[in-house]
Amino acid sequence: MEENMREKIEEIKEKVKSRSLYIARVPEKAKKYFMDLADSDFESDYGMTLKYLIDLHKGCFPTGHEMMEGEIEALKIKVEKLESQKEESNQEIKMISGKTIKLKRREKNGNI
């Protein structure tokens, strides 16, 4: 029983074990900003501050699938807009005389 408890304690210690990260050649202004941010928002927890900045960077500068999904969504919006314009261009106008005129949009290549 006691052996089991010691194993659990060691396991917990391993999970919360601190890890070190040393970064050289950091500009003084950037270092001050980072430390001030850590002090004010994260109670001087540099690890959580770094994680926050990485998450922020990922959110502001999407890469890979996120960028492609954004482009696809923009293209879908453009296609929907063009299709709605095409539907609108095939409208009919009824004149005062009672005559109906069908409007057709000319394509770029000259075809109707």
What do you see in this structure?
By secondary structure, the protein is mainly alpha-helical. It has a domain at 25-61. It is built from four helices and two strands, in the order H-H-H-H-E-E. It has a two-stranded antiparallel sheet with strand order 1-2. The chain is elongated, with a radius of gyration of 31 Å. The N and C termini lie far apart (87 Å).
Tell me the layout of helices and strands.
Layout: H1 2-15, H2 28-41, H3 46-60, H4 65-89, E1 92-94, E2 100-102
Antiparallel strand pairs: 1-2
Name some characteristics of this structure.
112 residues; mainly alpha; two-stranded antiparallel ribbon; 4 helices; 2 strands; 5% strand; elongated
Q: What is the global morphology? A: elongated
**Cα gyration radius (Å):** 31 Å
- Residue ranges: pLDDT <50 for 5 or more in a row? none
Distance between the termini: 87 Å
